Amino acid sequence: MNSFSDFGLLPSLLKTLKEKRISKPTEIQANTIPMLMGGQSVVGVSETGSGKTLAYALPLLHMLKSLEAEGDSVTQAGAPRAVVMVPTRELGEQVSKVFKTLTHDTRLRVRPALGGMTLEQARRNTSAAFEVLLATPGRLVQMLEQEHISLADVRMLIFDEADQMMDQGFLPDSNFVVDACPKDLQMALFSATVSTAVQELMN
Predict the structure, then answer these.
(1) Considering only Cβ atoms within 10 Å of each terminal Cβ, which end of the chain, N or C, has fewer?
(2) Is the dihedral of CA 155, 123, 55, 99 positive or negative?
Protein backbone atom coordinates (compact mmCIF):
# COMPACT_ATOMS: atom_id res chain seq x y z
CA MET A 1 0.00 0.00 0.00
CA ASN A 2 2.08 2.90 -1.28
CA SER A 3 -0.68 5.42 -1.69
CA PHE A 4 -3.97 6.28 -0.01
CA SER A 5 -5.86 5.55 -3.24
CA ASP A 6 -4.89 1.85 -2.83
CA PHE A 7 -7.19 1.56 0.19
CA GLY A 8 -10.45 2.12 -1.69
CA LEU A 9 -11.32 5.26 0.28
CA LEU A 10 -14.15 7.53 -0.82
CA PRO A 11 -13.26 10.18 -3.43
CA SER A 12 -14.16 13.00 -0.99
CA LEU A 13 -11.52 11.74 1.49
CA LEU A 14 -8.89 11.25 -1.23
CA LYS A 15 -9.58 14.78 -2.47
CA THR A 16 -8.94 16.21 1.01
CA LEU A 17 -5.72 14.20 1.41
CA LYS A 18 -4.53 15.43 -1.98
CA GLU A 19 -5.30 19.05 -1.02
CA LYS A 20 -3.33 18.57 2.20
CA ARG A 21 -0.48 17.01 0.18
CA ILE A 22 -0.69 13.81 2.23
CA SER A 23 0.14 11.09 -0.29
CA LYS A 24 2.09 8.27 1.31
CA PRO A 25 0.70 6.33 4.27
CA THR A 26 2.93 5.91 7.35
CA GLU A 27 3.68 2.40 8.57
CA ILE A 28 0.86 2.36 11.15
CA GLN A 29 -1.59 3.66 8.51
CA ALA A 30 -0.54 1.07 5.92
CA ASN A 31 -0.95 -1.70 8.49
CA THR A 32 -4.23 -0.72 10.14
CA ILE A 33 -6.35 1.09 7.50
CA PRO A 34 -7.01 -2.05 5.37
CA MET A 35 -8.00 -4.03 8.46
CA LEU A 36 -10.35 -1.34 9.73
CA MET A 37 -11.82 -0.90 6.24
CA GLY A 38 -12.46 -4.65 6.25
CA GLY A 39 -14.46 -4.41 9.48
CA GLN A 40 -11.83 -5.97 11.76
CA SER A 41 -10.96 -4.80 15.26
CA VAL A 42 -7.31 -3.77 15.60
CA VAL A 43 -4.63 -2.92 18.12
CA GLY A 44 -2.04 -0.45 16.83
CA VAL A 45 1.15 0.18 18.79
CA SER A 46 3.35 3.03 17.61
CA GLU A 47 4.96 6.11 19.05
CA THR A 48 3.30 9.51 19.25
CA GLY A 49 3.54 11.44 15.97
CA SER A 50 3.40 8.34 13.76
CA GLY A 51 0.04 9.24 12.20
CA LYS A 52 -2.33 7.24 14.39
CA THR A 53 -5.19 9.74 14.13
CA LEU A 54 -5.41 9.40 10.34
CA ALA A 55 -5.06 5.62 10.69
CA TYR A 56 -8.46 5.44 12.38
CA ALA A 57 -10.12 8.66 11.19
CA LEU A 58 -10.05 7.70 7.48
CA PRO A 59 -11.71 4.25 7.81
CA LEU A 60 -14.16 5.65 10.35
CA LEU A 61 -15.29 8.51 8.10
CA HIS A 62 -15.36 6.19 5.08
CA MET A 63 -17.72 3.82 6.92
CA LEU A 64 -20.02 6.59 8.18
CA LYS A 65 -20.22 8.34 4.80
CA SER A 66 -20.91 5.03 3.03
CA LEU A 67 -23.86 4.35 5.38
CA GLU A 68 -25.15 7.85 4.66
CA ALA A 69 -24.81 7.25 0.91
CA GLU A 70 -26.91 4.08 1.31
CA GLY A 71 -29.68 6.23 2.79
CA ASP A 72 -28.86 5.33 6.39
CA SER A 73 -28.20 8.76 7.89
CA VAL A 74 -27.96 9.66 11.57
CA THR A 75 -31.16 11.46 12.54
CA GLN A 76 -31.49 10.83 16.28
CA ALA A 77 -30.08 13.48 18.61
CA GLY A 78 -27.31 12.41 20.98
CA ALA A 79 -26.85 8.99 19.34
CA PRO A 80 -23.49 8.90 17.53
CA ARG A 81 -22.34 6.08 15.23
CA ALA A 82 -18.70 6.26 16.25
CA VAL A 83 -16.88 7.17 19.46
CA VAL A 84 -13.26 8.26 19.79
CA MET A 85 -12.01 8.09 23.39
CA VAL A 86 -9.05 10.26 24.37
CA PRO A 87 -7.33 10.60 27.77
CA THR A 88 -7.18 14.41 27.91
CA ARG A 89 -8.87 17.52 26.61
CA GLU A 90 -5.58 18.58 24.94
CA LEU A 91 -5.41 15.41 22.87
CA GLY A 92 -9.12 15.75 22.14
CA GLU A 93 -8.52 19.19 20.68
CA GLN A 94 -5.66 17.88 18.50
CA VAL A 95 -7.79 15.01 17.22
CA SER A 96 -10.66 17.41 16.59
CA LYS A 97 -8.40 19.50 14.31
CA VAL A 98 -7.50 16.43 12.23
CA PHE A 99 -11.18 15.52 11.87
CA LYS A 100 -12.05 19.10 10.95
CA THR A 101 -9.74 19.01 7.91
CA LEU A 102 -11.08 15.59 6.84
CA THR A 103 -14.78 16.40 7.24
CA HIS A 104 -14.62 19.52 5.08
CA ASP A 105 -15.83 17.53 2.04
CA THR A 106 -17.59 14.61 3.73
CA ARG A 107 -19.71 16.99 5.84
CA LEU A 108 -19.81 14.57 8.77
CA ARG A 109 -20.34 16.04 12.22
CA VAL A 110 -17.80 15.53 15.01
CA ARG A 111 -18.79 16.73 18.49
CA PRO A 112 -16.58 16.97 21.59
CA ALA A 113 -17.57 16.04 25.15
CA LEU A 114 -14.29 16.42 26.98
CA GLY A 115 -13.17 16.78 30.57
CA GLY A 116 -12.13 20.36 31.23
CA MET A 117 -15.24 21.76 29.50
CA THR A 118 -18.39 22.29 31.54
CA LEU A 119 -21.02 19.57 31.52
CA GLU A 120 -23.44 22.16 30.15
CA GLN A 121 -21.09 22.84 27.21
CA ALA A 122 -20.71 19.10 26.53
CA ARG A 123 -24.49 18.71 26.60
CA ARG A 124 -24.96 21.60 24.17
CA ASN A 125 -22.32 20.12 21.83
CA THR A 126 -24.14 16.80 21.68
CA SER A 127 -27.79 17.90 21.79
CA ALA A 128 -28.48 17.54 18.05
CA ALA A 129 -27.85 14.69 15.57
CA PHE A 130 -24.18 13.99 14.80
CA GLU A 131 -21.99 11.09 13.66
CA VAL A 132 -18.78 11.09 15.74
CA LEU A 133 -18.39 11.67 19.46
CA LEU A 134 -14.97 12.68 20.72
CA ALA A 135 -14.88 12.13 24.48
CA THR A 136 -12.80 11.60 27.60
CA PRO A 137 -13.91 8.50 29.56
CA GLY A 138 -15.03 10.24 32.77
CA ARG A 139 -17.14 12.82 30.94
CA LEU A 140 -18.73 10.19 28.69
CA VAL A 141 -19.68 7.98 31.66
CA GLN A 142 -21.25 11.04 33.33
CA MET A 143 -23.32 11.76 30.21
CA LEU A 144 -24.37 8.11 29.85
CA GLU A 145 -25.49 7.97 33.48
CA GLN A 146 -27.55 11.14 32.97
CA GLU A 147 -28.91 9.73 29.67
CA HIS A 148 -27.69 12.66 27.55
CA ILE A 149 -25.98 10.23 25.17
CA SER A 150 -27.02 6.86 23.77
CA LEU A 151 -24.38 4.48 22.40
CA ALA A 152 -26.96 2.00 21.08
CA ASP A 153 -26.12 2.80 17.43
CA VAL A 154 -22.30 2.88 17.73
CA ARG A 155 -20.53 0.85 15.03
CA MET A 156 -16.91 1.75 15.82
CA LEU A 157 -15.19 2.58 19.11
CA ILE A 158 -11.63 3.92 19.15
CA PHE A 159 -9.29 4.19 22.12
CA ASP A 160 -6.55 6.72 21.32
CA GLU A 161 -3.42 6.87 23.53
CA ALA A 162 -4.80 3.95 25.56
CA ASP A 163 -1.66 3.80 27.71
CA GLN A 164 -2.29 7.35 29.00
CA MET A 165 -5.92 6.48 29.62
CA MET A 166 -5.00 3.45 31.71
CA ASP A 167 -2.30 5.41 33.61
CA GLN A 168 -5.09 7.70 34.76
CA GLY A 169 -7.13 4.76 36.04
CA PHE A 170 -9.79 4.85 33.34
CA LEU A 171 -10.23 1.07 33.03
CA PRO A 172 -13.62 0.94 34.87
CA ASP A 173 -14.92 3.90 32.84
CA SER A 174 -13.66 2.34 29.60
CA ASN A 175 -15.39 -0.95 30.40
CA PHE A 176 -18.58 0.95 31.23
CA VAL A 177 -18.47 2.61 27.79
CA VAL A 178 -17.86 -0.70 25.98
CA ASP A 179 -20.81 -2.26 27.82
CA ALA A 180 -23.05 0.62 26.70
CA CYS A 181 -22.25 -0.12 23.02
CA PRO A 182 -23.74 -2.90 20.84
CA LYS A 183 -22.10 -6.31 21.20
CA ASP A 184 -20.97 -6.63 17.54
CA LEU A 185 -18.85 -3.51 17.85
CA GLN A 186 -15.74 -2.87 15.78
CA MET A 187 -12.95 -1.61 18.05
CA ALA A 188 -9.54 -0.06 17.56
CA LEU A 189 -7.02 0.56 20.28
CA PHE A 190 -3.97 2.74 19.67
CA SER A 191 -1.18 3.03 22.18
CA ALA A 192 2.47 4.04 22.32
CA THR A 193 3.23 1.23 24.78
CA VAL A 194 1.52 -1.93 25.99
CA SER A 195 1.44 -1.98 29.78
CA THR A 196 -0.41 -4.60 31.84
CA ALA A 197 -3.37 -2.20 32.16
CA VAL A 198 -3.50 -1.71 28.38
CA GLN A 199 -3.27 -5.49 27.95
CA GLU A 200 -6.27 -5.81 30.27
CA LEU A 201 -8.25 -3.32 28.20
CA MET A 202 -7.26 -5.14 24.99
CA ASN A 203 -8.51 -8.43 26.43
Answers:
(1) C
(2) positive
